[in-house]
Design a protein that fits this description.
- By secondary structure, this protein is mainly alpha-helical.
- The chain folds into two domains: about 30 residues, no CATH class; about 140 residues, GntR ligand-binding domain-like (Four Helix Bundle (Hemerythrin (Met), subunit A)), CATH 1.20.120.
- A two-stranded antiparallel sheet has the order 1-2.
- Strand 1 and strand 2 form a beta hairpin.
């Protein structure tokens, strides 16, 4: 009905347990705790203070992982993967022209580069990282000019991959993630 995986629901319930909003009860399942104003405000204030720091750390991890992936994709991508990256950018460009967010294309572009790097372990790590950053990515794509900057960054990365220029792809991806970081951290 809600198109959410069981593991996502489990993680959400675990997070609610950690901040004291729900508790498991034998025979009743998970129930909402009696709430006071303090029990709501304190975890929320802590979470908001921590969120900016966490997003910054997650973006640091992206800077550590994605530029080398782009470099590796430049030397390992199959012609059909490059063609697929071009198709993603065409769809992204059309959405940007019509004022749509192109969140799916943005994610798909980064995921396809990771796939083209031919490392399944890093692909899983990137998957988790992108899930953790989903909200901040969606918000950052709404910032004035961000869609165009993202598209331009993707084009620079793809051009380097097409040239089989590993150093150029790495530099372009690093610049792209730094631009994202600058925008995202202004939003928090």
């Amino acid at each position: 009905k809600f198109e959410v995986s069981r593991s996502s629901v489990r993680d959400a319930i675990r997070a609610l347990e950690l901040i004291g909003l729900v508790e498991p009860r034998q025979g009743d399942g998970t129930v909402v705790c009696d709430l006071s104003a303090d029990s709501l405000v304190n975890p929320l204030a802590t979470m908001l203070l921590r969120k900016r720091e966490l997003v910054g750390e997650l973006l640091d991890v992206r800077k550590m992982i994605e530029p080398p992936l782009a470099a590796r994709a430049a030397t390992h991508a199959a012609p059909e993967e490059i063609a697929y990256l071009e198709a993603i950018l065409r769809r992204q460009r059309e959405k940007v022209r019509s004022g749509e967010l192109a969140i799916e294309e943005d994610s798909e572009f980064h995921y396809t580069i990771a796939r083209a790097a031919k490392n399944s372990v890093v692909l899983k790590v990137l998957d988790v990282l992108m899930d953790l950053l989903r909200e901040s990515r969606a918000r950052s794509l709404q910032v004035e000019g961000r869609l165009q900057r993202s598209l331009a960054g993707h084009q620079r990365i793809l051009n380097a991959i097409k040239r089989r220029d590993a150093a150029g792809a790495e530099a372009a991806m690093y610049q792209h993630v730094e631009e994202i970081e600058e925008i995202v951290l202004k939003k928090f």
